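quick one: flavin-adenine dinucleotide bound model?
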Amino acid sequence: MRDPDDLPIAVLGAGIAGLVAALELQRNGYAVKVFEAAPVIAGLGGTHHDDDGFTYDMGAHFITNRLAAAIGISGDCRLVHRYGETVLIDGRYVDYPNGLLQKPRFLASALRGRVQPPDGDPSTAAWRFRRDYGQALADEVALPLLEAWSGSPADELAASVADKIPASIAHTMFLHALAKATNRAISVGYCWAQPMSASVFHVYPENGVATLCERIAEQLPGVIQVSSPVQAIVVRDDKVQAVRVHDQEIAVRAVVSTAPINILPKLVEGSDKLEKYRRFRYRPMVMVNLKLTGRDLLPDVVAWYPTGYPFFRLTEATQSMPWLAPEGKTMVLCDIGAEVGDEHWTMDDDALGDYCVDHLEDVIPGVRERYLGCRVVRTPIAYPVYLAEYEEDRLALRESTGIDGLLSVGRHGEFSHNLMEDVYWTTMDRVHRWIDAQHEIDLPAIEAAERSRRVAADAHLG
Ligand SMILES: Cc1cc2nc3c(=O)[nH]c(=O)nc-3n(C[C@H](O)[C@H](O)[C@H](O)COP(=O)(O)OP(=O)(O)OC[C@H]3O[C@@H](n4cnc5c(N)ncnc54)[C@H](O)[C@@H]3O)c2cc1C
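yep, here:
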């Protein structure tokens, strides 16, 4: 029988999380095998180039210079000069966040919220948003957006949803002002594991965001198997033993999974420890990328629509990354929160394009004449939904899966609203915690082996 220490570690998924984990384990001397279900790597971090010269990421992707440096692709990136967000309120666009606080009724209710906490349950997102932003701003802007985005009532969502929004308005305003002064899109709210600062700004890889995953994959020759879904993770006595791929059982030392956490219980055979994660929900999203003639058609890079439109957000990524579309053309991405099988999910792509164009007429007058076609992407797992009913189990997942040798990492594996830089840092952290634990576990055995080696050497000398 093989020594378990000689067995490879199976990594499930070749998105950024799986690849970062695999490379770091390999650098630390572990044998790894990456199994990717899809025929290509990169998962949500993939890039598509079409025949008309448009480049699409999954949604719109903004990454930081700090992530690019960590992965070693700084030299392949262009600087992003511009990034901004705006919200449509009372028929007018208001800059986020500066403009919102210039509205007297929002400012007054925000100040009141600080002095007199709202009624209701403090463990819910509804309470937390009303406390942090005041009743008026919460009820008119933040909560309708939250509900469109998550598909759930705000009083059923955990208060921690708000953790991903920059806590200090003053710091956010300072960074926005600095961005204007330095002509750099300073990154605000794109990473939590590391601090925001004036030296962290947006960049974009020459050939698309997929470059991040491609560069890591180059350092893992012969390790990645695409079109190879892991069918099962075999567990005995709450310890990982093997994975099954293409109906073959492969003995492994450990498994790093990046699969959605509500799918993981279905993959695990021999333990019911993960059953509680089956009820975790992801919000599906229909993303309609409209190809249009013209440029700078939206009032800012990202525009939010709390009510009145089927989409809750529009993004014109070419305002930040002009090279994503041919000259004189642009793309407007319409994000529609959906449920699998609902009317938006099942509408065919051309009909969705027309539907979005119809609803855009008052946002972009004359949009129909500009319309060149669309690209639609549907994903059933766009956003993890932090329901209050399972918040305790979600937080416990940060510590461990409860199964020896099974790590669950990445956006879906951690069930966390992580963007790519956070995926990078939290995956590194989890892998290092696992490696450290192996040393602790192995230490007595190593010391015992060392003692017996010395005894043998002494006996030989004697
Ligand atoms: C609409 C949208 C916009 C976003 N915008 C940004 C942004 O602007 N900036 C940013 O930094 N981030 C952004 N993100 C987040 C970013 O895309 C993710 O954080 C990141 O790509 C997640 O990487 P991952 O490796 O955790 O998961 P994934 O990329 O989903 O990778 C998981 C992989 O596992 C594979 N897999 C699943 N099950 C199995 C199985 N049984 N066997 C083998 N393989 C399996 C999947 O095929 C997939 O390739 C956005 C996300 C969305 C949805």
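The pocket of flavin-adenine dinucleotide is lined by residues 12-18, 35-38, 43-45, 58-63, 229-230, 258-259, 285, 382, 410-412, 418-421, 423 (CB under 6 Å).
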